[in-house]
Amino acid sequence: MDGFNINDAIFPEPAFLPKSVSMKKLDVLAKPLPQQLIGVYNITHVRAFVSVILSENTTPLLSSVISMLKPGGWLQWEEMKADFIILAEVRSQWK
Ligand SMILES: C[S@@+](CC[C@H](N)C(=O)[O-])C[C@H]1O[C@@H](n2cnc3c(N)ncnc32)[C@H](O)[C@@H]1O
């Protein structure tokens, strides 16, 4: 399984990952995507990406993650229902 993020500073140390998991730096909105990522995955999974969508245009993201699928592959996209968010008070010892 390959995990992607534009920010590789947040990747866990490889020693903490199963051998079958790798993390790679990628701007998923960059065009074109690296050729080695095109048509290679059975499943692509996107989670909590609504804040990354610009101008309510899902096409740049969708075209990228769909292009990474093998023919007949599946895209899974999860978002939370975020119309009501409680922001807890920031306590002084957390600042
Ligand atoms: C709200 S976080 C969700 C992280 C993770 N998917 C999850 O569910 O825990 C959004 C993530 O998108 C990453 N991101 C933002 N723009 C990106 C891009 N163009 N390509 C890849 N990752 C991006 C950010 O670095 C951030 O980690």
Fold and architecture overview:
This protein has one domain (2-94). The strands form 2 sheets. A two-stranded parallel sheet has the order 1-2. It has 1 helix and 4 strands. The model has no long low-confidence stretch (mean pLDDT 91). The chain starts with a strand and ends in a 17-residue tail after the last strand. The chain is mainly β and 95 residues long. The longest helix is centred in the middle third of the chain and has 9 residues, at 59-67. The protein has one helix at residues 59-67; strands at 2-5, 22-25, 41-47, 69-78. Bound molecules: S-adenosylmethionine (SAM). S-adenosylmethionine (SAM) binds next to strand 1. S-adenosylmethionine (SAM) is lined by residues 4-7, 26-29, 47-49, 51-52.
Total individual domains: 1
Q: Total helix count?
A: 1
Helical residues, percent: under 10%
* Strand arrangement, major sheet: 1-2
The major β-sheet equals: 2 strands, parallel
Q: Provide the structure class.
A: mainly beta
Unreliable segments of 5+ consecutive residues: none
Q: What's the number of extended β-strand segments?
A: 4
- Principal-axes geometry comes out as globular
Distance between the termini: 36 Å
List the helices and strands and how they pair.
Blueprint: E1 2-5, E2 22-25, E3 41-47, H1 59-67, E4 69-78
Parallel strand pairs: 1-2, 3-4
The structure holds S-adenosylmethionine (SAM).
What would you say about this model in short?
The protein has about 100 residues and is mostly beta strands.
List its traits.
mainly beta, two-stranded parallel sheet, single chain, 95 residues, 26% strand, binds S-adenosylmethionine
